[in-house]
Predict the structure.
Amino acid sequence: MYEILCLNPISSSGLKLFPNSFQMTDQIERANGILVRSAQMHGLDLPESLLCIARAGAGVNNIPLDNCSRRGIVVFNTPGANANGVKELVLAGMLLASRDVLGGAFWVASHKDDPDIAQSAEKAKKAFAGRELQGKKLGVIGLGAIGVLVANAAHDLGMDVYGCDPYLSIQNAVRLSRYVQIVGEDSEQLNACDYITIHVPATPSTKGMVNREWLEKKKDGVVILNFSRDVLVHDEDMADALARKKVGRYVSDFPNEKVANLAGAIVFPHLGASTEESEDNCAVMAVNQMADYLENGNIEHSVNYPSCTLGPCRHAARICVAHYNRPSVISQLTSLCAKDHINISDMVSKSRGDYAYAMFDVESPVSHDFEEEVAAMENVIQVRVIEKKRSEDGE
């Protein structure tokens, strides 16, 4: 029986997918898996029983990745599950930055008791005039699951779209409209855009990327949209650019004391994935990943260990080993199997940076002594033996 802790409310659309061999717990010290959305996990005392964490969303800044990696705790996220919800909010942000819909709506609300409001509105509406998106230039920095959807939708709205992503995957390149022009990070086309929307992860190289130097290269009056992470934008430099009209509007999904008080900023309360559909999609994806890992040892969409799968466990047992990415670990593992007369039916081994993961399907049961011998090997972080019976309990 696996015990699962939810640190945030998780959609029942996902939770109901757990097999019968899983049960929910409210005690972290008993948890084999943790489902989380926005709860801060830094500083939490993670129990020895914990095998994996699944973030129902894309960002994992709230999870102590280094600590998890060193302990063999696999951390999953759900890339693309909330992409459409974020895409739609980005489009709404562009429209709100172009047409003063908010100002107009506030005007109506403040004059709701005026008996001649219809006539008054005709006189007042010129103060809320704007511009159309059609024919304008949009730069999309980061062509992942969200960036591709934004770029394609913007083209459908009649915009000229320029995309920038030095790490564009084949999968996303195939999904990208052929009308989206791929340009360099510091290209003239990108610098001349009327709108720039940012869809990159928060890494040491991207934190503070939107700063004074970056902004000065952009077109006067450019609209900047940030639906990725607050730390990508240097708030003081953005305030200065707005005051000088270098930036026409700044649209952000990340409120803080500085940004909330910026004249010319439109700030949402982190609504990007706050739709019923996104929450359901993230929950379903997170639960499926967690269940497959706990029952079969398979890893997909992990942020700290490599993707690695052998499908359902159909042999006598499956040996799963998280280890440091060092030479000879696999040869030592196979030698131990040979010494104990354990025949390997199938195996897979993958690495990612300093960490690696291997799975061996074997044709006979694995003793506890063998498991302890593997665990004692140099560079082995964690070993799990999954028996065939366990993988079939939920079938």
